[in-house]
Design a protein that fits this description.
Layout: E1 3-6, H1 8-32, H2 43-47, H3 49-71, H4 76-108, H5 116-139, H6 146-184, H7 192-215, E2 217-218
Parallel strand pairs: 1-2
Helix pairs in contact: 1-3, 1-7, 3-4, 3-6, 3-7, 4-5, 5-6, 6-7
The protein binds protoporphyrin IX containing FE (2 copies).
One protoporphyrin IX containing FE binds near residues 131, 135, 160 and 163.
């Protein structure tokens, strides 16, 4: 399904929101929350890696991977390689990001997997991993037959969009959950940090929306060499 609207302007808005979202989450975790650390006696610094990698990795780089087919003036094969590499980076950063949430919980004596956010999170990363493996095997190496590729493509797009929307929704739940914890421990509800966290989540949601708008609108014309074609 593609609306008769050009995708390129949506990709520009998405890039701009990606930069704003990345800067905001870094300002939050480094300036307001004290920084990032893999090992520390202050366990919150270990947690801080989680939102940074989930937003910049899974959401922002994953979103750039999706829009790469419509945002880059390159040949189909080159875009395919960029799409799969960016998704691999998003997946790896997502896995490390989830690992840091577990590491923080384990080192702080907090239970694992008690929340809606954590259950959805596990489902999303598993689906994302399976989607990547299937995409790689069918569209890249060793590559399926023409029939398998053309029949798989609509499923690849719909499952990819499904996993991505769930990821953006779960990131929003994550921001909300963390901010609620902080407010319950005394953080001012109308203070600058609370506004910053809510604003970061809003930017993430708008970014996700523009990624989806790109998917449902039209890529470059099919006639030229830089075409957006079916498979
Ligand atoms: C799509 C992106 C995200 C995924 C897939 C994800 C996944 C997860 C998972 C699996 C856990 C469970 C760790 C455990 O049980 O030990 C977790 C914990 C947590 N995450 Fe995320 N996360 C994402 C984004 C975020 C963001 C952006 C924030 C913002 C601060 C956040 C905040 C939290 C918090 C506060 C916890 C600890 C409480 C809990 O387990 O629910 N998450 N996350
Ligand atoms: C978790 C990883 C992945 C996700 C979430 C994902 C998602 C998507 C989405 C949403 C689209 C539609 C883009 C659009 O129409 O604007 C797409 C297209 C596509 N993806 Fe993936 N993808 C993933 C991994 C891969 C991998 C590893 C390959 C292997 C090469 C691949 C190959 C393709 C191809 C060939 C298209 C069609 C492009 C076209 O119609 O011209 N994907 N993907």
């Amino acid at each position: 399904m593609a609306f008769e609207i050009k995708a390129l302007p949506f990709t520009f808005v998405a890039h701009a929101l990606a930069i704003v979202g990345a800067v905001l989450v870094l300002v939050w975790c480094i300036h307001f929350r004290g920084g990032l650390a893999w090992e520390s006696s202050n366990k919150s610094l270990i947690f801080n890696i989680h939102p940074v990698l989930m937003l910049i990795g899974l959401i922002i780089i994953g979103g750039e991977a999706i829009i790469s087919y419509k945002s880059l003036p390159l040949k189909k094969q080159e875009k395919k390689l960029i799409h799969l590499v960016l998704h691999a980076v998003a997946l790896i950063l997502g896995i490390i990001g989830i690992y840091t949430a577990f590491k923080y919980h384990n080192e702080s004596g907090i239970a694992n997997l008690y929340s809606l956010h954590s259950w959805l999170g596990i489902a999303i990363i598993v689906l994302y991993g399976l989607q990547w493996i299937y995409g790689f095997l069918v569209f890249f190496f060793p590559g399926g037959s023409t029939t398998i590729r053309s029949e798989s493509l609509p499923w690849h797009v719909i499952v990819g969009v499904f996993a991505y929307i769930l990821a953006v929704a779960n990131a929003a739940i994550g921001f909300l959950e963390k901010l609620t914890f902080l407010e319950n421990s005394g953080l001012a509800k109308y203070g600058s940090e609370a506004l910053l966290v809510n604003f970061t989540a809003a930017v993430a949601i708008f970014y996700g929306a523009f990624v989806i708008l790109t998917v449902v609108s039209q890529g470059p014309p099919v006639e030229d060499d830089y075409s957006y074609t079916a498979i």
